[in-house]
Amino acid sequence: MRATSAGILLYRRDPAGVVSVLVAHMGGPFWARKDAVAWSIPKGEFDPDAEMARAAAVREFREELGLDPPALDARELGTFAYSSGKQITVFVADGAGFDASGAVFGSFEMEWPPRSGRRAEFPEVDRVEWMPVETARPRLVAGQRPALDALAARLAGG
């Protein structure tokens, strides 16, 4: 079965009209010293037979950031495919005024160091930032970049 994820892409405009998005730096030892292609829309996997994409996006936002997404009308931006075949359904909402400074990141456990037999716990996300779309683009994992294009098209169309 193909992996399916859902997430919420918050955006805001500054007084000069520059659009920024809220993105999260992936946690864990693999991503610790990486910046390019190491950021993600707050998202996570779900079973489409058991949960609706919008509910999964809200749940995953809460799990990854420890914050409720803003109570705004998040609209579906689209479903985008990674080169691996994984798909992500992205919802978009105006996050003006959303403060992520109180984020408390969820965690995961894995064997670390590799082949050591020891298990360690790491944050799913180690930081979250608002950044202009053009700054976010090279930092975002490649499979999520089309969501930035879809956001720009949506904002340009009203």
Automatic annotation (TrEMBL):
Domain of life where this protein originates: Bacteria
Single Gene Ontology BP annotation: AMP biosynthetic process
PROSITE patterns attached to this UniProt entry: NUDIX
InterPro entries given in the database record: NUDIX_hydrolase-like_dom_sf (IPR015797), NUDIX_hydrolase_dom (IPR000086), Nudix_hydrolase_domain (IPR051325)
GO molecular function: bis(5'-nucleosyl)-tetraphosphatase (asymmetrical) activity
Annotated Nudix hydrolase domain residues: 1-153
Protein name according to UniProt: Phosphohydrolase
Species annotation: Microbacterium dextranolyticum
